[in-house]
């Protein structure tokens, strides 16, 4: 059973890794279009009425739509490559079509996840069970598996799980929409930020980030704002600590701190791992608190990040970007202070906590 869940995690993360470039590309293109449209005072560039406007407004309207095309591939690609990870190329078409149907049925991220798993395991079972004479075996991967894998996947999605998953997704979206207003947004920011800081690129981190990206397609940006702030904070914080209190750290960690600082600015949270693993009992809580507080500061002061980019190159596309940066600095300062005043073992002479 443990091996099954490990393989299931691997399949899902494969889908995530292929999905992320589509999400980023589509969201950034849409972000460029919307920032460009603001020059003309247009804040709803997606509205069809702007097709015949003056200046570059029609161009930005078209650009926004093109970005939407890329973003619309997010769920089909996610489902397709989950299926691919399970049963290789014969399952790709089943997964892609299942993901497209998940989009059409309004089942959202959860429906695409189900479509990918259904397609992958159906095709895998058929590949293992269907035995044809050697002269006819070549038709199995190019005809039988894609055709019947797709047929069974879409029938299951359409008539069995589509309705319940659409209702579940609608309920989650409505709940998140309600939570995104007032004090609820602060709760979301604290939870998402803390999850991102907990295991620095691990499954809890990825669960928060992927969920936040999925909510972008529903027009909900609080979770994404919190996640993108939190991704930066630990690596930036440890980099700051090595610059502020050099004597606290060994030569190796000082060098790691320089790399960590840069990794923070470009949005790579794994740069904090070497520092965290030296004494995780103290530093994991520091990471969680720093990320949660930094995310809460940015969200509560009105920062809105509509694109799944955490690095410095995307900051100017954030609404109210000065408070967004403030949230990052507050969280990173908490991490730096925690490393300096609570951390032990960084200079290889202090007592070191048991490493996980």
From TrEMBL:
Q: Where in the cell is it found?
A: Cell inner membrane
- Judging by the UniProt lineage, the source's domain of life is Bacteria
Transmembrane stretches in the record are 12-33, 66-87, 108-127, 139-161, 182-201, 221-244, 256-278, 284-316, 323-346
Task: Extract the PROSITE patterns matched here.
Answer: PTS_EIIC_TYPE_2 (PS51104)
The record places domain PTS EIIC type-2 at 8-349
Q: InterPro entries, per this entry?
A: Bacterial_PTS_Sugar_Transport (IPR050864), PTS_EIIC (IPR003352), PTS_EIIC_2 (IPR013014), PTS_IIC_fruc (IPR006327)
Provide the membrane topology annotation. Multi-pass membrane protein
- Alphabetic keyword roster: Cell membrane, Membrane, Phosphotransferase system, Sugar transport, Transmembrane, Transmembrane helix, Transport
Please report the name of this protein according to its UniProt entry. PTS fructose transporter subunit IIC
Q: Specify the species.
A: Clostridium ganghwense
**Native organism taxonomy:** Bacteria, Bacillati, Bacillota, Clostridia, Eubacteriales
